[in-house]
Amino acid sequence: MYAGLCWCFVICFADCYARKLLINFVDDGLISSVSMVLSPMRTRMLIAVSLYMTIFVHSMPADERCAKSQLYRQVEEHKWPIVYSPEYNLSVLGLEKLHPFDAGKWGKVYHKLVAEGMISKETVVEPVEATTDDLLLVHTSRYLDSLTSSATVARITEVPPAAMVPNSVLQTKFLRPMRLQTGGTVLAGKLALERGWAINIGGGFHHCSADDGGGFCPYADITLCLKFLFVKKLIHKALIIDLDAHQGNGHENDFLGDDKVYILDMYNGSIYPHDERAKKAIRRKIELRSYMADEEYLEKVQTHVAGALNEFKPDFVMYNAGTDILINDPLGRLSITPDGICQRDQIVFEECRKRNVPVVMVTSGGYQKDTGPIIADSILNLWRKKLIQWQPASEHVRKNGQAIAKASHDEL
């Protein structure tokens, strides 16, 4: 009976809904004209599939969605908890050059770590692309549907000419790499629990929330990583340490009013995004003046990172390590040296490691061509200081004397 009622609904609304779908297809360049109408039977089949996705897939319980996901894949013991794919890097018909973001910085980080002998192709972890099912754990279907509009993607990337590019190209050349990076952040969360720390060489899309993107951030990877951990009951309390030069309004809007998540956000108060609503989610807010230099900045990092950890006592730390704080960054407008960035990251890892709190680092913003090598230098510094080292999951459990909560094999 239920199926019959659904089919009646399909038939009644097929014409108007099909017209809407066709118009969307034309806007996205998938068909050339609304005159290319479908046959009545194909129209009804199309609507039936759409309704099925809306009723059954989009409304799937969170625990079922996580259990079904392939993002928490098993990682071989010999690999480092460093996540990267060559497909992170962007090349969108040259349009990436119209934005100050270095679209190849992730590859520069990876190649320098390899050149210095820290990791190799065989020891780095490659992520799985986040699927629509995965993303629906956080994002609204309306928002994900909006990404099929090239105009929406152009707004998010802040590259207006992208609105003229067929959406299929943007999906392949921009959104898919971003979904890979999003999957990388989620996997890094699992690895951090097993190994004590993890680094996703990409990710850190802190301007994207459940229902809106912006600032070159199309997916809410930080929120998604934490949601996976909470839904799977792997953690109870999470601390977000956001040290990108910009306010992290995406995850702040997502966790507004959530007592399980404590947000420390230290950012330049005079630049984008000025999101007053999101600021209400920040438990420890440090607004910096423009062109602040190393000494004052690092003193604040030390004081507030230690303070937040002592105050909240989290099970897990998500560290958004943007390098747009670098001196001469055109968007961050701070004056931190490369050595200052290394010291900043060292402080965060020292404070987390001495408390045995698992930490994930994501690389976030940075709008100069030398940010990739600087990120690599900072990771190498952590390695040389022995704040990050390779060890199998079993060894991490033995050394710390703690039960590492992780997904069972039948969930993987």
UniProtKB/TrEMBL annotation:
<dbReference type="GO" id="GO:0141221">
    <property type="term" value="F:histone deacetylase activity, hydrolytic mechanism"/>
</dbReference>
<keyword id="KW-0678">Repressor</keyword>
<comment type="similarity">
    <text>Belongs to the histone deacetylase family.</text>
</comment>
<keyword id="KW-0378">Hydrolase</keyword>
<feature type="domain" description="Histone deacetylase">
    <location>
        <begin position="99"/>
        <end position="375"/>
    </location>
</feature>
<dbReference type="InterPro" id="IPR000286">
    <property type="entry name" value="HDACs"/>
</dbReference>
<keyword id="KW-0805">Transcription regulation</keyword>
<keyword id="KW-0156">Chromatin regulator</keyword>
<dbReference type="InterPro" id="IPR023801">
    <property type="entry name" value="His_deacetylse_dom"/>
</dbReference>
<comment type="function">
    <text>Responsible for the deacetylation of lysine residues on the N-terminal part of the core histones (H2A, H2B, H3 and H4). Histone deacetylation gives a tag for epigenetic repression and plays an important role in transcriptional regulation, cell cycle progression and developmental events. Histone deacetylases act via the formation of large multiprotein complexes.</text>
</comment>
<dbReference type="GO" id="GO:0000118">
    <property type="term" value="C:histone deacetylase complex"/>
</dbReference>
<comment type="subunit">
    <text>Interacts with HDAC6.</text>
</comment>
<keyword id="KW-0804">Transcription</keyword>
<dbReference type="InterPro" id="IPR023696">
    <property type="entry name" value="Ureohydrolase_dom_sf"/>
</dbReference>
<dbReference type="InterPro" id="IPR044150">
    <property type="entry name" value="HDAC_classIV"/>
</dbReference>
<keyword id="KW-0539">Nucleus</keyword>
<dbReference type="Pfam" id="PF00850">
    <property type="entry name" value="Hist_deacetyl"/>
</dbReference>
<dbReference type="InterPro" id="IPR037138">
    <property type="entry name" value="His_deacetylse_dom_sf"/>
</dbReference>
<dbReference type="GO" id="GO:0040029">
    <property type="term" value="P:epigenetic regulation of gene expression"/>
</dbReference>
<protein>
    <recommendedName>
        <fullName>Histone deacetylase 11</fullName>
        <ecNumber>3.5.1.98</ecNumber>
    </recommendedName>
</protein>
